Amino acid sequence: MTASRKWMNAAMLAGLGLMASLLAAMPARAEDAIPKFDPKDMVPLVHGPNWVDLDGDGKRDLVMKARSEVNGPHSFSIYSFFIFADSRSYKHEDHGWDYGEPPFRWNAVSFSGEKPPPDEFIFSTHENGDCLRRDLRLVITKDNNRQSNSYVITAERDDVDNYYNPQPVTFVVYKLERDKELAYGGFSFIEQSRFQTKRRYCSVLNAFQTELGLQNQDRALNLDYEAGPMTPTTSELMEPTMDTAAEQTGNRTIVYYDDEGNPTRTHSGGNIQWRNNNPGNLILTPFTRSMGAIGRDSAGFAIFPDAETGLRAKGALLREGRGYKGKTIAEMMPAYAGLKDDPDKAKRYIKDIGDFSGLDVNRESGTFTDEEWDRLNKAIARREG
After folding, report:
1. Which residues of the chain have pLDDT under 70?
2. Which of the listed residues 212, 247, 269 is the one where a domain comes to its end?
3. Do both 180 and 272 map to the same domain?
4. Based on the domain organization, do 312 and 280 belong to the same domain?
5. Which terminus of the chain, N or C, has fewer Cβ atoms within 10 Å?
6. pLDDT for 144-184, tens place per residue?
7. Residues 300, 185: one domain?
8. In this predicted structure, what is the pLDDT of residue 182?
9. Does residue 117 fall inside a structural domain?
10. What pLDDT sits at residue 196?
11. Are 254 and 154 in the same domain?
């Protein structure tokens, strides 16, 4: 072999080695980070007690899902996980003190964190009318040794400028562990991985189904809206109607009727604010009926005869409603938007309302003029979508 050929072979081998090193150093593609779960392994969780063996010991454990309905668009559900297991003695790491076997067998399961505060033993959803912005799925798999493994997959979509504009969804995968460093209290869901979707979604229900093949687990909530936003136009706000009744007749279809029972118009598609003439996404209650609501949809949201009536009802809630009357925008908005437990997002929401309305967010609302209330109501409608 000639010297030149030997040099060429050496250079080729070096190049291949360099290429292999570069490929090994390249970050994994986003799609490679997406975990693969068999949809048949998903455990549907409905509102109420869900009895399921989480830790594979053959005993029934409990997943509780409960609901908090508020008179507005941001109702939510809460999940909490409890495991019935044999208790184990606890020994202090620093002093070696043996506390013995605790007398209880029901264990509250936390999420990642060495010593989480109480609210990290629960997971809450976040809703806005048609869109579910935060939720989870429970998947229980069997490995080759028939060992049971429980995973919780959470999904959350940011709101950015309003709740209806589609955004990427971030998934986080947790695995149930016991007696691990981060398994505070014995059991914990420890974070395994996280990834963000390339596609944008309004509702995480659609993200779960499209990205992971995991279906809607609770048909009582079908917040899978994906159509483009549709809000009332100025002309619609200025046109009161004579409709006296309304009902939902199909998926996202509202039919309005006059006082003789004749259908007058149909709102189909769009978002819930437009379909229901309900810019505040208010629930049907005695209060909203007193403010002119003429019906309700399948999710319990009030239907108003026109958008102007719905806008007045939202304004009256903020002016006179318990928990709102006399407070500042900065005090009202976290409760109204369902963000009391998320101060960072609440701060951004408050700033948006102040920017959109031009009002001082720290000024008591009892001093607002009618024109300023109108600006506040329209700013909230803009922020909500």
Report:
1. 1-35, 70-73, 87-104, 113-119, 129-130, 145-146, 160-164, 179-185, 217-242, 385
2. 212
3. no
4. yes
5. N
6. 766 789 999 999 987 766 666 788 999 999 999 886 665 55
7. no
8. 59
9. yes
10. 92
11. no
The residues near 47 (Cβ < 8 Å, ≥ 6 apart) are 65, 66, 67, 77, 218, 220
Residues 60 and 165 in one domain: yes
Residue 96 domain flag: yes
* Residue 80 belongs to domain spanning: 39-212
Please report the pLDDT score of residue 71 as a whole number: 61
- 147 in the same domain as 53: yes
Residues 262 and 348 in one domain: yes
Q: What is the pLDDT of residues 308-341, one digit of tens each?
A: 888 888 888 888 887 788 899 999 888 887 777 7
If DSSP states are collapsed to H, E and C, what string results for the chain?
CCHHHHHHHHHHHHHHHHHHHHHHHCCCCHHHHCCCCCHHHEECCCCEEEEECCCCCCCCEEEEEEEECCCCCCCEEEEEEEEECCCCCCECCCCCCECCCCCCCEEECEECCCCCCHHHHEEECEEECCEEEEEEEEEEEECCCCCEEEEEEEEEECCCCCCCCCEEEEEEEEEEEECCCCCCCCEEEEEEEEEEEEEEECCHHHHHHHHHCCCCCCCCCCCECCCCCCCCCHHHHCCCCCCCEEEEEECCEEEEECCCCCEEEEEECCCHHHHCCCCCCCECCHHHHHCCCCEECCCCEEECCCHHHHHHHHHHHHHHCCCCCCCEHHHHHHHHCCCCCCHHHHHHHHHHHHHHHCCCCCCEHHHCCHHHHHHHHHHHHHHHC
For residue 111, CA distances in Å to 176, 179, 186, 292 come to 9, 14, 12, 44
The answer as to whether 379 is a domain residue is yes
Task: Dig out the tokens for 274 from the structure.
Answer: 């437009």
Distance CA 203, CA 167 (A): 9
Say what the pLDDT of residue 24 is: 42
In a domain, 133, yes or no: yes
Domain count within the chain: 2
Q: What pLDDT does residue 80 have?
A: 93
In this structure, the answer to whether residues 44 and 173 fall within a common structural domain is yes
Residues 6 or more apart from 202 whose CB is under 8 A from it?
Answer: 130, 131, 157, 164, 165, 166, 225, 226
Pair of tokens at residue 37: 């779960």
| Residue 190 vs residues 57, 150, 274: alpha-carbon distances, Å | 19, 11, 42
